[in-house]
Design a protein that fits this description.
alpha+beta; Jelly Rolls; Arc Repressor Mutant, subunit A; 2 domains; four-stranded antiparallel sheet; elongated
């Protein structure tokens, strides 16, 4: 978990790369001097209830943020992609609260960690840093609100259609369980709707994948 700076070989540490890239956030250079930390796909980063001790910048890879119900059902909140920060982590640091969700590495990651004390100091003494943090926070909070609205208002078949089309491929490697987590419903509900879409000739369910037969029909659903 990224609750403290690693002090042993649990993660592989290498010298930091100072070039944040053309699409990096304007706060990237504030992470200069911190080491790159490599995290393997599938490894938990933060658990619900963890204390947030670091501000982190994701340099490469993808992190999935999700909640888990008492029955064990997962609902994906959002994904953090390269050169972005996590809105929930920012919220916890600003409000001195514990992490309200689960975060796991979807792919191999490279991240940089900034200790909370340094984050707090920059928020007080560096207006450019503070403005960038709040602008990024507001943008991603807006995206999170849209996700919540989607889960509350959009029909399941619309969510499934958007999910399948988002890959830009006629064959999507996925499972009903993963789709359920992404669209915010139970696996049994996804299975029922997949059967309906298959019966209408829009898709074909395969082992570990969904083949899109009629993309235009799925687009009309959205």
């Amino acid at each position: 978990m990224l609750t403290e700076l690693p002090s042993e070989s649990r993660y592989s540490l290498s010298p930091g790369n100072r070039n944040g890239g053309a699409n990096a956030l304007s706060i990237t250079h504030y992470f200069d001097g911190y080491h790159d930390i490599r995290i393997s796909a599938g490894q938990p980063i933060l658990h619900q209830g963890d204390e947030c001790l670091n501000y982190f910048l994701l340099k490469s890879g993808s992190v999935r943020l999700f909640t888990r119900s008492p029955s064990g059902r997962e609902v994906t909140l959002y994904h953090v992609q390269a050169n972005n920060i996590c809105v929930l982590t920012t919220s916890c640091l600003l409000g001195d609260r514990r992490f309200p969700a689960e975060a796991v590495a979807e792919t191999d990651l490279i991240v940089r960690l900034m200790p909370k004390a340094r984050f707090d100091d920059l928020m007080e003494t560096a207006p450019a840093f503070r403005n960038s943090v709040f602008q990024s926070f507001a943008k991603r909070m807006d995206n999170l609100i849209r996700t919540i609205e989607k889960l509350a208002l959009e029909p399941i078949d619309v969510r499934i259609a958007k999910y399948l089309l988002s890959f830009g491929s006629d064959r999507v490697r996925t499972t009903h369980q993963l789709m359920a987590a992404e669209v915010g419903t139970a696996r049994e509900v996804v299975t029922r709707h997949i059967k309906k879409l298959s019966a209408r000739g829009f898709i074909e369910s395969q082992r570990g994948a969904i083949r899109i037969i009629d993309a235009s029909a799925l687009e009309k659903l959205t």
